[in-house]
Amino acid sequence: MSSMDRETLLERLRGIEWDDFEVKEAAGGVPKTAYTTVSAFANTSGGWLVFGVKESKQGFEVVGVPDPDTLQNDFLGGCHSTEKFSRPVEVRPHHFLIDGRSVLAFYVVPARRFDKPIRVRVDKAWYAYIRVAARDQKCTPEEEGRFLRDATVDTFDAQLMPGVGFSELDETSVRWVRGLYQSRHADRPLAELSHADFLDELGLLQDGQVTQAAALFMGRRKLIGRLKPAGLVDFRLIRLPWSEEVPSHRYDDRLLCEGNIVETLQAVLGRILTLVPNPFALDPVTLQREAHPPEYPALREALVNLLVHQDYADQHRTARVLWYTDRTSFDNPGDSFVALSAMLDGGVSDLRNPRIARLMRLIGYAEQVGTGIATIVRTWRAVDRTPPVVVNDPGRKTYGLTLSWARVPQHDDAFWKAHIGASVSSDEARLLAWLREVGAAPRSSARLATGATARATRAMVEHLLVNRLVETVDDEGEVLRLAAHLRELLADEPFAPQVAPQVAPPVAPPLAPPLAPPVAPPLAPPLAPPLAPPVEALLRLLQERGQLGAKAVREGLGLKDRTHVRETYFQPALDEGYIEMTRPDTPQSRLQEYRLTDTGRSLLATLHGAI
């Protein structure tokens, strides 16, 4: 949010400092620590620095600044001075009068990646800072190194490895790549070339030396150990909901991929196919059974993104896939160089590893460079899952994608007409449900919920604004949230049953992953997991007190988070048939209550003795 009005400022002052908001009293001029905050904001995602506000244990108190003009000129002069900063920093000033007191608010614009790190002079020494939660953190040498690598024109994967030739590549991996390439490009006369000449033709081998891209994609394990000793991907299976994970619970099964990209693709995709059930479905053209589950394209694209955009020069961090029972997260060392809106638009992308991305496309593992997030959003929308969450942190150089397995709450048009007197399309309803979950979000993120084009999403947002179902919370009108009356309407609303995938028992990976395109495993009935503690607690509560409404259940369990209780307690119990609604024909009724089924009572009798 790069603009702010008086009401938004007051609302922020009722909250707490965080990664994009910092207050200073500034009673005696520009505080010394203000410039370290400027460096931190510029190196991260930008943020607001407010002068004339005092912080205490009771919260924020507006005290004002005595001479706002002088203070503003001094501060802006410092931000533009190369004696204070390694490069001039763009700062946008705003002046507010609150209770007759002058308050200055400055928006620090994030620096371009080619200008980072922005260093600030402190006591005759130069330091760079990043913003971590509500504090300014001095960059370590490793963190500064990440900024400097990303600021170079030459990409890491284009660099040659002196003294490393074709013999250091794994021939089986090379044959696999060639086989996929030939199957997609039969018209190109490369079949008669030797392996080395083939790689030279693709720009992966130059003057007998391999590029970093070739080494990472097809290198022998010894070579990969030199490039990335911690491995390419750390896949962890955690048999708990994300919200239930405790620090001592690390994982139930682990697959650390220490081979090349080809081997990593095979191993992780093979593991994914054992974890996601494949319901029976026919291809509408071939009338053959679909080889992969409907979620597979999104999961494969997320893995490809992890491998394409990773910072392979970072020796201290490894990409991770964390597979919980209720969501799957893909965490990457290396932020995205483009904004979320550009990711959703697709097309040309500013890539960290363009040669690796091109090879993925040539062998059919990425349809088109820059379309990854758009493909994931469309797929997740098609299977009616909760929209993806994307978190890009330019300061800490991380990128995260979370795919929730929860279904989007369904409301037909009749529901909206009955409650608010307006007609709402299915995509608009999906957008409203998403805003209920995330709170406030920029317009550019709305496409994560709709899965539609930018133009169509803009039309949906305008329709919802006109009908006063959503509102903006910033001066520029870029940040959206549900309108107040709608937030109140949906606050205690019951939810419809959702279906989450069963997590199959872990399967040990093969000693050497087979180098062939992944094939769906034989169909087998999913094994039911043991009764989760949250579900058991819910069943015992209903056994003790009889049928209860959602609010009474939360009070009985001592919990307040509606989303957490819905996804972790109610939903699994409904899905397994342990509980049922007292008003199944009107699942959204405010009078809705829940009770044990015969199946639930029998289960409790089996686990804990006769009821």
What does this structure look like?
By secondary structure, this protein is α+β, with helices and mostly antiparallel strands. The protein has four domains: 6-142, Methyltransferase, Cobalt-precorrin-4 Transmethylase, Domain 2 (2-Layer Sandwich), CATH 3.30.950.30; 166-232 and 240-313 and 335-372, no CATH class; 413-490, Arc Repressor Mutant, subunit A (Orthogonal Bundle), CATH 1.10.10.10; 533-608, Orthogonal Bundle (Arc Repressor Mutant, subunit A). The strands form seven sheets. The chain has a six-stranded mixed beta sheet with strand order 13-12-14-15-17-16, with helices on one face. A four-stranded mixed beta sheet has the order 1-2-6-5. Helix 9 (261-275) packs antiparallel against helix 10 and helix 10 (296-308) packs antiparallel against helix 13. It is globular, with a radius of gyration of 27 Å. 37% of the residues are buried. Mean pLDDT is 81; it is low at 494-530.
Give the fraction of residues assigned to helices: 25-40%
Strand coverage percent: 15-25%
Main β-sheet description:
6 strands, mixed
Gross morphology is globular
Mean pLDDT: 81
Find the count of extended strands (DSSP E, 2+ residues). Answer: 22
Helix/strand-derived category reads alpha+beta
Rg calc: 27 Å
N-to-C CA distance? 56 Å
Which regions are unreliable across 5 or more consecutive residues at pLDDT < 50?
494-530
Q: What is the total number of structural domains?
A: 4
Task: List strands and helices in order, with pairings.
Layout: H1 6-13, E1 21-24, H2 32-43, E2 47-51, E3 53-56, E4 59-62, H3 68-80, E5 91-98, E6 101-108, E7 119-122, E8 125-132, E9 135-138, H4 141-151, H5 171-184, H6 195-201, E10 205-206, E11 209-210, H7 212-218, H8 221-227, E12 233-237, E13 253-257, H9 261-275, H10 296-308, E14 319-323, E15 327-333, H11 340-345, H12 354-362, H13 372-382, E16 389-393, E17 398-404, H14 413-420, H15 426-438, E18 440-442, H16 446-450, H17 454-466, E19 470-472, E20 479-482, H18 484-490, H19 533-545, H20 550-557, H21 562-575, E21 579-581, E22 594-596, H22 598-608
Parallel strand pairs: 1-2, 12-14
Antiparallel strand pairs: 2-6, 3-4, 5-6, 7-8, 8-9, 10-11, 12-13, 14-15, 15-17, 16-17, 18-20, 19-20, 21-22
Helix pairs in contact: 9-10, 10-13, 19-21
